[in-house]
Each structure stands twice: as C-alpha cells, then as structure tokens.
Amino acid sequence: MIEFDDQEKRMVLKLVYYGPALSGKTTNLLKLHDLLDMRDRGDLMVLDTKDDRTIYFDLLPFYLKAPSGLKIKLKVYTVPGQVKHDATRKAVLQRADGVAFIADSRPDQAATNFESFSNLENNLACVGLNIEHIPLVVQFNKRDLPEILSEEDIRRTWEPTGVPVFMASALEGGGVRETFGKLLELVYQAVDKKVGLLDKHGLSLEAFITKLTAPRESAAS
Amino acid sequence: MGETTPQESIRFVVGEERDIAEILSAAEIAPLLGSLVRAGAAGAALVRDSGEVLWQSGSEAGTHAVTVRLPLQVEGEPVGGIEVHGPEERREVLTAMACLFRDTVQTILNTNLKRMMTTEIHTTVVNQSYDELLEANRQLAASEGRYKTLAENLEKIVTTRTKELQQAYVRLVQQEKMAAVGQLAAGMAHEINNPLGFVTSNLSTLAKYVQRFRDMLSFCRSSLAAPGLEGVREGVRREWGRLKIDPILADVDELFAQSLGGCQRVSKIVADLKAFSHIDEGESGVVNLNEEIDRTLNVLAPQLPEDCVVRKNYGNLPGLRCNPAQLSQVMLNIIMNALQARPQGLHLIIETGVRGDSVAACFTDNGPGIPPAVQSRIFDPFFTTREVGAGLGLGLATAYDTITSWGGAIEVASEPGKGASFTLTLPIVRT
To answer: What pTM did the predictor assign?
Structure first.
C-alpha cells in the first residue's frame, strides 16, 4: 500500500504488471485503457520509450470513492522487462499490493519466463515483500501466435502452486479483463483484512470490481 | 536470494502522491489567467476542490453573473478546477474559453507529472546503482587489502616453509643413512655368524679331544702304578692307538690356528662396524684415503657377488683432514650405485693419486652408463632412476654435500653403453 491516511480519508494502492521483456505488459495496459470506461479516470501514462520498449514504467491510474467517503486510488504500473533495468523494477515494486505476471506462451521463451519469475521473487524479497503472501496472478500471453505451449501443459505446471492462471492475447484483447479482475479480487481480500473495506467503509467486493472494470460504452477503439 | 537488505534509504516511492500545487507553478498558470482576462473574461482562477484559490487574475468570482467551473484531475482523481467568470451576455464565449483553459491546464498537468515521475525514478535508479557500485568497490578494496597482506606475509611464510622443508630433508637424510646402516648390519650379522660358527664347532671338537688326552693320561698313570714295565709299555702303545692320539695331536694345532683366525676376523668386522656407526660423531682426523677405501670394501665384501671384480690402483697419498666415517659413507654410496647399475659381472676399477694440490679417487664401472640428461640431475636430492620404494635418491646428494663441505669436488663422466666414472677430489692439508 502506497498510502493510507485516516485523517484525509485516502488510500492509495499499487498493482504491478511484471514479466520478461516484450511479453505484453504495456500491451495489457493499453488494452485495459481501451476496454474499460475511463471517464473520470486517469489517463494512461506511457513514459519515454526507446524503440517502443519501456525504459521507466507505464501507469494506468483508477479512482473510486467508497460509501464511507474513503477516496481510493489504484495505480497500475508496468515494469521494464529488459534485464538491465533491474533497479527500476525494484523501485516500482516497492509497497506493491498485487502482481500480475505476464508470461510469453512461446516455447523458446520458457527459460526467459523462468528467469523473470525468479527475478520477481528476489526483487520482492529485496523490498520486503513475500511472493508467498502477495496477491498474484499469472497470464500466459500471445495465445494468438501459432507455435505456443499447450494450455494443458501450462495448467499442469501451475496447478500445484494454487496461483490463478489466465490465457490471453493482449493484442486481440482476450483474457486481459479477466486477469485484471482476478487480481483485483485477490487484492480486495488482502486490503479488506487490513482496513475493513466492507465493515468500515461499506465497499463490497462486487462493488469494488464493478466500479473498476466497468466496460467502455462505445465500441472499443 | 542474492540481495541481503531491503531498500531502507528510499526517500521517493514510485507512486507517491503529489499535490496539484506541486505539479503546477505560478509561472505556467499566471500568464494563462492573464490572457483570459485580456481576452474578455472578468476574472479567472485555479482552485482546489476545497475552494481554496491557488492562482487568480482579474476580479473575484462572487461579483459576476456567470461562473464556468470545470474540474481538473491528477491521475484520475478530481483535485480542483478552473473558473472563468463574467457577464451573462458573454456566457458562450466564457464557456469556450473555460474549456480551452481547462484542457490546456490538464495537458500541462499531465506533462509535468510525466516529467516529474521520469526524473524521480531516474534519480532513484542512479543513486541505487551508485550505492551498489560503492558497495562493490568497498568489497573489492577489502579483497585487495587481503591480497596485499598475503603478499607481504608471503615472504615470511616462504621462509618458514623453507626452514621446515630443510628440517624435513635433514631428517630424511638421517633416515636414509640409518636404512643403509641397517642393511650393512644385516650383512655384518651374517658375516659374524660365519666364523663364529666354525670357531664354536672347533672348540667342541677340541673339547672332545681334550677328553681323549685326559683318558690317555689317566691310563698312563694307572698303568705306571702296576708291576712289570714291558706289559705297561705294550698297554700304553695299544691305548695310544685305540684313542687315536697321533691324528688328534696333528689336528689340534690346525684347529687352534683356525679358531684364532676366526676370532680375529670377528674382531675386525666389529671394529669396522663400530667405525661406521660412529659416523656422526664428527671426529675429524688425518685420514689415509687408500686405507679408508679398503675399509669400505671390507664392509661391503658380503654384498659383492661372486662374479664381481675390484681392481685397485693406489697412488702414494698424503694425509687428508676429514671425518673418516663420512668419507667411507661417500665411497660406499658410489660403489653401491655401481653394483646396482650392474648386478652381474661388475668390473670396478678404483684409482687414487695426487692431482695438483688435491687427492683424487676415481671409481670406474662397466655398467650401462648414464644418459646426458640424467647426468645433470644425479646429485639433486630425491632424484632417482630406481622404482618407487627402491631408494630415496639421497645417496649422491649427501655425497655431494659432504665432499663440497670439505672444499672438494665430485664429478661424473659417462657415455651411455660405456660405463660411468665418479671422481672425488679433496684438498690436501699441509701439516
């Protein structure tokens, strides 16, 4: 949690989209921005890139108010995936409330996926967070490509971990909202335990998710 | 997990909330407000959500009929707004101006936010990378420090180890000598037992003979006591023959001579052995090289096979000052090497003589010879061409040390297939 101010009645939460370079983290955010109703929401901030590759981070901010008057800001970040930007990844991970790990479904990316996940575990520990406890979902992206790992194999590998897994194609849009929605659910449960979202602030899980994932009314661009 | 500590010194957190007054500045907003007023608005302002006016131009809101308010957002959260007011008849224009003004301010706000976020994370990353570099540098410096200490101590450590090695070498040499002496002692024991054997046998035979003499004397005495001398003479003659006194008398001298000779041999062997075992008592004396060679050969005698021929060609030598036992040891090593080079049919020539102001002894064998590559190494400690366990390779090294410590020299000359020749030279001491 970035901030919880009882006096000011504001809470700022952070979600991080993590994963190896070019796995589709920024694309996920771009798609969310397209799919969701962003009126009275924040603009998508894509900071300077080099050849369309993230150097710093991207930010998609959300804002909602609980019935109690508590102002909730949800900041969704992506991290740069290239190995050399590890310091940036550490900085972005600080105080994160939840992580979506975006993996590349291509078979030749298996090792890269693994290294990135290992890097996530290490960096979480560096900033005082535990991968076992933090709300975490995994997305296997690029399902639109021809040569990919089978869903069966992926689920077989991940089932024992208990981590929710989603198949997605961020370019086409499938699986993006579902990933985001599940992560929001896990984050709600964790935050509710800490601040009593339902009891103290009257904000139910359904309301939380609905407000944040309301689709854009006009046709998606 | 690689890292050890979480980041404690981060002052800026990615996602830290910023106040609208931090993101916008008077320098950016005031000119726009001024333009609005010049363009026909009665007044314009930028306010917080709470109503607090941050910047304004022209007259205040309350005094006019129309006030157009539009919200401003920071990261999706409404935090304030802009206001443009003026007379009723200008409502359309005022609305248009307000929209334009709000969009402009919102764009400035978003751009500034992006710039601030970029700067802050850039600074954080640079600082963190720098901190990591400093830490790596510190560890390298510490490592370098350890190497320096090691290098400085290395000299001391090497000296200590060298001393330890030298002590070990001395112990090994001693062990080798002991082993050599042990071997000789075994040969000696056999040789001592040999003459002791026949001396013992002779003595038992002599004991039996003495008993015969006793019997004869006893008979003579008892015969002389009886009357009638002719009968006595006959009886004595018969008994003399029966007891075989004549052959015994002939044999007795031989037995004594042999036995005495055997005892002398044993004495000599023991004397030579004593000389050898006192090897380290460091008794220097005036030494005759020829005698010492002979003594060594005596000691070696049991180990020389039947078909071994030793030819001695001794010159007239003055005295040498050295430890005779150690000198014998040197020659023993040389002769033993020759024997091991050619166990069968060894032909050893030993020549001594005076060369300039030194005495020289040359030992030449008809063995297989020594290849040139080996020749340069035979005096090295622990160098041996024998199999593992068959010799430490210290014999010639010790010989070299001993001779050179007396101011002498030891040299080898050899051609493969044509035997080897070892020459000792020792300086003559003019007394």
So the answer is: 0.56
CB count in 10 Å sphere of residue B125: 19
- Residues of A whose CB is below 8 A from B128: 87, 90-91
ipTM of model over 0.95: no
Domain segments of chain A: what residues? Answer: 3-213
Q: What is the pLDDT of residues B119-141, one digit of tens each?
A: 888 887 888 788 888 999 999 99
CA A30 from centre of chain: 12
List C-alpha distances in Å: B149 to B140, B152, B160.
14, 5, 16
Q: What DSSP designation does B88 have?
A: G
Chain B residues touching A45 at Cβ < 8 A: 110, 113-114, 117
Nearest CA in chain B to A127: B6
Q: Is A13 on the interface with B (CB under 8 A)?
A: no
Separation CA A187–CA A198 (nearest Å)? 13
- By residue count, chain B amounts to 431
What 8-state DSSP symbol labels residue A206?
A: H
CA distance B386 to B46: 104
Contacts of A174 (CB under 8 A, 6+ apart): A143, A167, A168
CATH no., domain A3-213: 3.40.50.300
Q: How many helices (H) and strands (E) does chain B have?
A: 9, 11
The burial of B164, by beta-carbon neighbours within 10 Å (0-12 exposed, 13-18 middle, 19 or more buried), is given as exposed
Q: Does B6 touch chain A (CB under 8 A)?
A: yes
Proportion of chain B in helix, strand, coil states, percent, rounded to 5? 60, 15, 25
